[in-house]
Amino acid sequence: MEKYIFDESNGLWYELQGDYYIPCLTLPAEKEKPIGLFGQRHRRYLREYRRITYTNLFTSGRLNSYLADIDEQAQQRFETITEQMKQAQGITEQLKAENALEWTGRMNNIRACAVEIVDREIIYA
Protein backbone atom coordinates (compact mmCIF):
# COMPACT_ATOMS: atom_id res chain seq x y z
CA MET A 1 0.00 0.00 0.00
CA GLU A 2 1.19 3.50 -0.78
CA LYS A 3 2.21 5.78 2.10
CA TYR A 4 0.39 8.82 0.62
CA ILE A 5 -2.58 8.98 -1.75
CA PHE A 6 -4.45 11.92 -3.28
CA ASP A 7 -8.25 11.98 -3.54
CA GLU A 8 -9.31 14.09 -6.51
CA SER A 9 -12.95 14.24 -5.42
CA ASN A 10 -12.14 16.40 -2.37
CA GLY A 11 -8.57 17.52 -3.13
CA LEU A 12 -7.03 16.07 0.03
CA TRP A 13 -3.89 14.06 0.60
CA TYR A 14 -4.12 11.01 2.88
CA GLU A 15 -1.34 9.33 4.84
CA LEU A 16 -1.33 5.64 5.70
CA GLN A 17 -1.15 5.08 9.45
CA GLY A 18 -1.53 1.45 10.42
CA ASP A 19 -4.42 0.11 8.37
CA TYR A 20 -6.15 3.47 7.82
CA TYR A 21 -5.62 6.51 5.62
CA ILE A 22 -5.77 9.70 7.69
CA PRO A 23 -6.23 13.08 5.92
CA CYS A 24 -3.19 15.37 5.98
CA LEU A 25 -4.74 18.57 7.34
CA THR A 26 -2.97 21.79 8.25
CA LEU A 27 -4.18 24.88 10.06
CA PRO A 28 -4.33 28.18 8.20
CA ALA A 29 -1.27 30.38 8.63
CA GLU A 30 -1.66 33.07 11.27
CA LYS A 31 0.48 36.11 11.87
CA GLU A 32 2.18 35.67 15.24
CA LYS A 33 1.63 38.52 17.67
CA PRO A 34 3.14 38.58 21.13
CA ILE A 35 0.69 37.57 23.84
CA GLY A 36 1.23 38.94 27.33
CA LEU A 37 0.20 37.71 30.75
CA PHE A 38 -3.48 38.62 30.41
CA GLY A 39 -3.74 36.94 26.99
CA GLN A 40 -2.15 33.77 28.34
CA ARG A 41 -4.54 33.71 31.28
CA HIS A 42 -7.51 34.14 28.93
CA ARG A 43 -6.21 31.32 26.70
CA ARG A 44 -6.02 29.04 29.75
CA TYR A 45 -9.58 30.04 30.69
CA LEU A 46 -10.87 29.33 27.16
CA ARG A 47 -9.06 25.99 27.02
CA GLU A 48 -10.52 24.84 30.35
CA TYR A 49 -14.03 26.35 30.41
CA ARG A 50 -14.93 27.48 26.88
CA ARG A 51 -13.62 24.61 24.78
CA ILE A 52 -15.87 25.20 21.76
CA THR A 53 -14.88 28.86 21.50
CA TYR A 54 -11.21 27.91 21.89
CA THR A 55 -11.45 25.22 19.21
CA ASN A 56 -13.30 27.49 16.78
CA LEU A 57 -10.73 30.26 17.17
CA PHE A 58 -7.83 27.81 16.93
CA THR A 59 -9.04 26.00 13.82
CA SER A 60 -10.00 29.21 12.02
CA GLY A 61 -6.53 30.64 12.63
CA ARG A 62 -7.76 33.62 14.63
CA LEU A 63 -6.73 32.54 18.15
CA ASN A 64 -3.44 34.42 18.29
CA SER A 65 -4.86 37.74 17.07
CA TYR A 66 -7.88 37.36 19.39
CA LEU A 67 -5.65 36.75 22.42
CA ALA A 68 -3.37 39.66 21.46
CA ASP A 69 -6.43 41.95 21.33
CA ILE A 70 -7.71 40.70 24.68
CA ASP A 71 -4.25 41.21 26.18
CA GLU A 72 -4.09 44.79 24.85
CA GLN A 73 -7.57 45.64 26.19
CA ALA A 74 -6.79 44.14 29.58
CA GLN A 75 -3.44 45.95 29.82
CA GLN A 76 -5.05 49.30 28.99
CA ARG A 77 -7.82 48.69 31.54
CA PHE A 78 -5.22 47.68 34.16
CA GLU A 79 -3.23 50.89 33.62
CA THR A 80 -6.38 53.05 33.74
CA ILE A 81 -7.59 51.47 36.99
CA THR A 82 -4.13 51.76 38.56
CA GLU A 83 -3.89 55.47 37.75
CA GLN A 84 -7.41 56.16 39.03
CA MET A 85 -6.77 54.32 42.29
CA LYS A 86 -3.45 56.12 42.79
CA GLN A 87 -5.19 59.47 42.45
CA ALA A 88 -8.07 58.44 44.70
CA GLN A 89 -5.71 57.28 47.47
CA GLY A 90 -3.36 60.23 47.11
CA ILE A 91 -0.26 58.25 46.21
CA THR A 92 2.32 60.65 44.77
CA GLU A 93 5.98 60.79 43.86
CA GLN A 94 6.51 62.77 47.06
CA LEU A 95 5.33 59.78 49.11
CA LYS A 96 7.69 57.59 47.09
CA ALA A 97 10.61 59.87 47.95
CA GLU A 98 9.71 60.20 51.64
CA ASN A 99 8.64 56.65 52.49
CA ALA A 100 9.48 54.15 49.77
CA LEU A 101 8.36 51.13 51.79
CA GLU A 102 4.88 52.50 52.39
CA TRP A 103 4.63 53.55 48.73
CA THR A 104 5.61 50.03 47.61
CA GLY A 105 3.04 48.40 49.87
CA ARG A 106 0.24 50.67 48.72
CA MET A 107 1.17 50.24 45.04
CA ASN A 108 1.25 46.46 45.40
CA ASN A 109 -2.22 46.61 46.94
CA ILE A 110 -3.49 48.77 44.08
CA ARG A 111 -1.99 46.46 41.46
CA ALA A 112 -3.53 43.40 43.09
CA CYS A 113 -6.94 45.08 43.15
CA ALA A 114 -6.58 46.19 39.52
CA VAL A 115 -5.64 42.66 38.40
CA GLU A 116 -8.69 41.28 40.20
CA ILE A 117 -10.97 43.81 38.49
CA VAL A 118 -9.47 43.08 35.05
CA ASP A 119 -9.86 39.35 35.65
CA ARG A 120 -13.56 39.72 36.40
CA GLU A 121 -14.30 42.23 33.63
CA ILE A 122 -12.23 40.84 30.75
CA ILE A 123 -10.29 37.64 31.38
CA TYR A 124 -13.01 35.45 32.91
CA ALA A 125 -16.02 37.04 31.23
TrEMBL record:
InterPro entries in alphabetical order: TnpV (IPR026989)
Origin: domain of life: Bacteria
UniProt name for this protein: TnpV protein
Organism, as annotated: Gehongia tenuis
